[in-house]
């Protein structure tokens, strides 16, 4: 159960004010919310499945001590990167594809190598409960993007995110420092 709760909470916080959440807000201001929700859920599910599979593979090859150190350092890096302002403009670009494929494809590609996908990979390597890790990470991203969909639908695209970035940075750095401390104790 710890895998589910930690994955859900870490990924939910990490996704707040992330570029993919901002992108979801933009899509929700342009397309029907149901289409955006289904497309984002599909992309999240596949992206997190890949991250969990990669994390599970790493755990079977690399000793856990080194994974814990690397994951802790990644969390600290994610915290620092969360402080950087992301330039993301909401543009209405026409596409030859249906809104579902446009949204899910764009979201999936934007999520590749993103901090939430890497966090999911690290969590899967840490926990041996891959399904719970996948479920928690997926629920965390879905919840964060539901907020993005509601915000994009109701308020448009001009939401300040500085406070969310500081909260995410604090949480990531704290988890990273705690992980480093527990690795050597």
How do you describe this structure in short?
With 185 residues, the protein is an all-alpha fold. It is built from 8 helices and no strands.
What does this structure look like?
With 185 residues, the chain is mainly α. It has one domain. Helices cover 80% and strands 0% of the residues. It is built from eight helices and no strands. Helix 2 packs across helix 7. The chain is globular and about 50 Å long. The model has no long low-confidence stretch (mean pLDDT 80).
Helix content: over 70%
Stretches with pLDDT under 50, minimum 5 residues: none
The ordered string of helix (H) and strand (E) elements is HHHHHHHH
Structural class: mainly alpha
Number of domains: 1
Shape designation: globular
**N-to-C CA distance:** 24 Å
Strand content: under 5%
What do the pLDDT scores average to?
A: 80
The largest β sheet comes out as: none
From the alpha-carbon coordinates, what is the Rg to the nearest angstrom? Answer: 16 Å
**Total DSSP helices:** 8
Overall strand count: 0
């Amino acid at each position: 159960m710890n895998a589910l709760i930690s994955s859900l909470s870490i990924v939910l916080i990490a996704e707040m004010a992330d570029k993919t959440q901002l992108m979801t807000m933009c899509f929700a201001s342009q397309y029907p919310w149901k289409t955006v929700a289904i497309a984002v859920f599909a992309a999240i599910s596949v992206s997190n499945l890949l991250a969990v599979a990669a994390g599970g593979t790493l755990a079977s090859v690399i000793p856990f001590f080194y994974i814990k150190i690397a994951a802790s350092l990644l969390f600290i890096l994610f915290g620092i990167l969360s402080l950087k302002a992301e330039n993301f403009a909401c543009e209405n670009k026409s596409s030859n594809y249906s809104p579902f494929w446009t949204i899910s494809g764009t979201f999936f590609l934007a999520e590749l190598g993103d901090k939430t996908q890497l966090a999911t990979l690290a969590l899967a390597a840490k926990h041996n409960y891959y399904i719970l890790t996948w479920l928690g990470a997926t629920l965390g991203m879905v919840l964060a993007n539901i907020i993005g969909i509601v915000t994009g639908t109701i308020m448009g695209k001009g939401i300040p995110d500085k406070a969310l970035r500081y909260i995410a940075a604090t949480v990531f750095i704290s988890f990273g420092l705690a992980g480093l401390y527990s690795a050597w104790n």
